[in-house]
Batch of 2 targets.
Target 1
Amino acid sequence: MSLRPLIVGNWKMNGTRASLSEARAIDRAAQRLAWADVALAPPFTLLYPVHAEVEHIRVGAQDLSTEECGAFTGEVSASMLADAGAQFVIIGHSERRSRHGEDDAALVAKCGRAVDAGLSVILCVGEPLDVRDAAEAEPYVLAQLDAVLPDMAATGPEIGEVVTVAYEPVWAIGTGRSASAPEISAMHRVIRDLLVRRYGEAGGRSVRILYGGSVNGTNAREILALPEVNGALVGGASLTSQSFMSIVLAAGADDAG
Ligand code: PGA
C-alpha cells in the first residue's frame, strides 16, 4: 500500500509540562523524516502547549464531547480542541468504551462534531479476547466500524484526509502481546473491503488503517512492513522520544534500506 505511513503517539493520562521536552525531541527528529507522518495525542492539558512547541508533527486529542457548548461539566468540545491547536481527535478508544460506556450513538455524535469542526478522526475498533476466541473478531470489528464511519456527504470526497481507522485488539493494548502478523493482515483486509464498500475507490486508496496494541521498537518493523498496515497507534512506547522514534524509524526501514 503506497499510503504514507502515519505513526500516532497516544499519551493517554500521562504527561505534564515536563514532558514538553519529549514532544520537542520528537518534533526535531520528525523534521528529518521523509517517509512518515508523525502525530501526538497528549492529554487535554498539554494540547495547546505541545501545539505551540512543535512544527513538524500533528497534534490531536484523545476524546471530545458529544455536545458543542453549555452545561456539561468536565467536557471539552470539538471547537475547543480546534482552538487549542488540535488537527485530529481519537474516537472510540477501547478505554473510553469500557470505562465510560461509550456506545455507537455517542461515537456517531462525537464523529459528527469533530468533522463539523474541521478535525480529522481516528476511529478505534477492536475485539476483546473472548470475541477472538469465539472466532467472531471480524464481524465484531466490522460492525463497530460500520456503525461509526461518517457518510461521504459529511466528509467530502477527500475521505482519507478526514478518516483514519485504528485496529486495536483490546487484548493487545498495554499487555505486551501484540497481535500476530497474520491476524493483523487478515483484519486490515476486511476493514479495507468495508471502506471500499462505504466510500468506493477513495476508501480503497486514501484511508489509512493503523494497527495499535503493544507496538514497540522491537516488533514495529515487522508490523509496519505488512502491506495492509498504513501506520501505528502507539500508547506506552510513545512516551519518550527515544522509544517512539524507534517505531517511526521502523516505518521507513524498508524505504531507507
Ligand atoms: P499500547 O496502547 O501501545 O500501550 O498497547 C495502544 C493504544 O491504546 O492506543
Note: The two ends are 17 Å apart (CA to CA).
Target 2
Amino acid sequence: MLDLDRTASQVSEAPLHHTTRWSIDAAVSLIQQPFNDLLFQAQAAHRAHFNPNEIQLSTLLNIKSGGCPEDCGYCPQSARYDTGVTATPLMSVDAVLTSALQAKAAGATRFCMGAAWRAPKDREVAQVAELVAAVKGIGMETCVTLGMLKPSQAESLKSAGLDYYNHNLDTSPEHYGDVISTRTYRDRLDTLDAVRDAGINVCCGGIVGLGESVRDRAGLLCQLANLATPPESVPINQLVRVEGTPLANEAAVDCFDVIRTIAAARIMMPSSFVRLSAGRKELGEAGQALAFFAGANSIFYGEQLLTTPNPQQNEDQDLLARLGIKTMVGQA
Ligand code: SAM
Ligand code: DTB
Ligand code: SF4
C-alpha cells in the first residue's frame, strides 16, 4: 500500500496548479494500486473525516434547458448537436419554488439549479438571484451552475444567499481540448477563482468516460486537490452517452474505474464531499454500494438529472435503508 504522507508531498511541475499538494505520478500510483488496497485506504480516509453511514442529498432542476452555444462533446444541451433536447426559457420563481418544495418534502437538503448557458448576462444573474433567494427562503441550501461567471456576478449571487456554485473542470488540461473547444481550461479556473473569492462554496469535479487515460483522471484530480482551497464538493460523473453528441459512441467505462476515481478523490480531498453524480443507473445497486464504501457521500436525488434519467426516489430510499445509510438532515 502507498504511504500517504510520502505520496502527498511529492511534487512535480504543473503550471495550472495553485499548489503542488499532489503530483500526477503519485495520483496515478494511487489510482492503479490493487482495488482492495485502494478501497481500504479510501474508507479509512472517509472515516477520519465523515460519518461513513451518512450521505447528503441534492436535487437538480434544469431551469433553462438546451440551446447552448458551447461545443462540450458530452452534452445533450449544446445547440450544435441534434439530441432531441428542446430549448426552454428560464423558469419562473413560482415554478422553481414548487419543485424545490417537492424536493425538500422528499428529503433533499440542497437544491441545485442548472442553466445551459455559456456565461450568463448580468440581467440573467439578477433573475437567478431571485430564484436563489426564494429557495433559500424555504430553508434549503442553494447551488447553481450557469457557466462562466465574472467576479461581480459571483458577488451578486452570494448576496442573494447562494451556498454553492458548480463549475466542473471535467478532465485533465491535456485531454480537455479533445472534448471542448469553445472555452479554455484557464476560463474554468478563472470562474472557480471568482466563486471562491466571493465566498461561495465551490462544487467542482469531472467526468469519467470521455476517452481519457488513467493519467488524465489523475491529472483532473490533481487540479482539484491542488487548488489553493480544494472544492467543498467534488462531483464525479460517469459519462451519460447521449445519441447525437460526439461522444455518443464512446466505449463504456468499467464500473471499477469509476469507483477507483471516487476512492482517489476521497483520499486526495479527504474533507470534501465526493458526489456520486451522473451514471448511477448504469452503476446499479452493488456498484453504488461500492462507491459509498469508496467514500462517495452525496448524490443527486430525483428521477431526472438535467436531461437524462436518474434512479427513482423510492429506489434510492430502499437502497440506502438496506445499506443502513442515513441522509443528512436539512436546515429548519
Ligand atoms: N452550462 C453550464 C456549464 O457547462 O458550466 C452548466 C451546466 S453543465 C450541463 C454541468 C456539467 O454537467 C458539465 O460540466 C458536465 O460535467 C456535466 N455533464 C453534462 N453532460 C453530461 C453527460 N452527458 N454525462 C455526464 N456529465 C455531464
Ligand atoms: C454535475 O457535475 N453533474 C450534474 C450537475 N453537476 C449539474 C449534471 C449531470 C448531467 C448529466 C446529463 C444530463 O442529464 O443532461
Ligand atoms: Fe453548454 Fe454547459 Fe452543456 Fe457545455 S456543458 S454545452 S456549457 S450546457
Note: The pocket of iron/sulfur cluster (ligand 3) is lined by residues 68, 70, 72, 75, 77-78, 116, 118, 147 (CB under 6 Å).
